[in-house]
Request: fold
Amino acid sequence: MAGVLRRGTRLGKYRLERSIGKGAFSEVFAARDTVEGRRVALKVAFDWVVREFGREAMEAEARIACSLSHPNVVATRNADWIDGRFVMASDLARTHVYDYPGAWRSGAVALRIVRDVAAGLAHAHSRRLMHRDVKPENVLVFADGHAAITDFGVSRFVRTESRSYTEAGTMGYMAPEQAYGKPTLASDVFSLGLIAYELLTGKLLKWPFTWPPERFDRFRAKVPEPLRGVLQKACEFDPADRYPSAVELHLALEAAFRKIEESHAGAPRRRRRRRVTGLPATPFAVGMELFRKRSGRALGMTHRCHRCKGPIAEAMSVCPWCGSKGNSFKEVTSAPLVCRHCERGVLPEWTACPWCFAGRFKGNGRPPRRDPRALRHCRRRGCPGQLRLFMRYCPVCKTKPGRRWKHPALPDRCTRCSGPTSRGFFRFCAWCGRRQRENS
Reply:
C-alpha cells in the first residue's frame, strides 16, 4: 500500500489539499479534480477496512451511495480503486452542521436544515434504505445554505425478517431499539429529532426522557406551534409512537410549514410605525445612543446587537452593552466573503480571518490591493498586509499587530486584555467580555 496521505498527494486525477474529517472507517480530504478542474470531497477508506471487509463490501457501499439521487443527499460523483486505495468522490460542502454557527443562532435556519435532511432521508426510506448513523457530522451544509445527508456507508436495506445490527450508529444520537440491535426506519427519525432539539436548544436529549424535557422553553420560543407536535413525535422514546419512517415525517413537516406560510400570507399587513426619534426611556439607553451619535461611525459601530439592539462594530467580539458573544455579520457585512467560523466579512485576497484567526482559508493568490480602510501596515518585513482598525491579526501572514490599538473615543484600557474601552459608557469589554467598572 502507498505511503501516508498528505497535502499535495496525487491519487489518480485527484490532488489532495487538506484533511477535513476522519471517521471510523475512512478519512475525508478536500481535493481538486485536475481533469474537470473542480474541488471535491474525497473519501479514502483505511487500509485495514479494505483488508477486513474486502473489495466486494467496499464496492457495495459505493453502489448504495450511487443509488440515491436527491438534492438533500450528498451526490457521489465517482468511486474507484486508485493505487490500491478505495476512494469515493462527492460534492464538497461548506461544513457540517456542528460547525455551522447559523444553525445554532437562528431557529429558522435550524428548522430549514431539519426540513432538508428529512427530505433526503425520506428519499432513502422510500427505497427501504436505512442510514443508521444520522448525526450532526453527517449533515453537510453547502455554500448556498441547503443541507444534505451523507455517509450511507453503514446503511442496510431493510429486510422482512428480524435481524440484529450492532456494528453501526453513534451513541448519543442512537435510538433505543437500535442500541439493542433492532434498528428500523423509525430509528433514523429519532436521531433527526434529537439533532433538531439540540440545534434549537443547545441540549442533546439523553434517553429515557419525558416531555417536556429540559430547555423546553427555548424550544417553544423558536419553533412555531404547527411544528412543535411534529418534532415531539419524532423524538418519542417508544418507536410505536414515532413516525414509522422519514417519509411520514417529511409529509408532516411539509404540511406544518404550509400551515405556517398560509397563516403568514393571510394575516393582515400591519402598518409600519414611524421611527421614534426621541431619546430612549432609560438613562443607559440614552448614553448608548449618545455614544453612537458621537463616535459610532468613527469606530465602525454601524450594526446592531441581536440581543440588546445596541450599536456594535464588526471587529468587536463582544457586545459592549449587554455582553453578548453571539452576533453574526453574515447578512449585513459589506465584504464579498464571510469567515465560516466567526461570520465576519473577509476579502478574497486575504489568507486568514483577521478577526478570529481560526478561519484560515486560501486566498485568491493575488497580492492585496490598497485598502482605503487600512490604518497600518503589517510589522513583518516584506509582508504586504494592511490592517484595519482593531484587527487582531494580519490578514496575509497572521502576525499580531505590534502596537496596541488606540482611539480617542475609547480612552481607557481593559484590566484583563488591555484592549481599548470606555468605562464611562461600555458595560463590557468589546474584545474579551470583561465587565467594566464605571468611573466614580
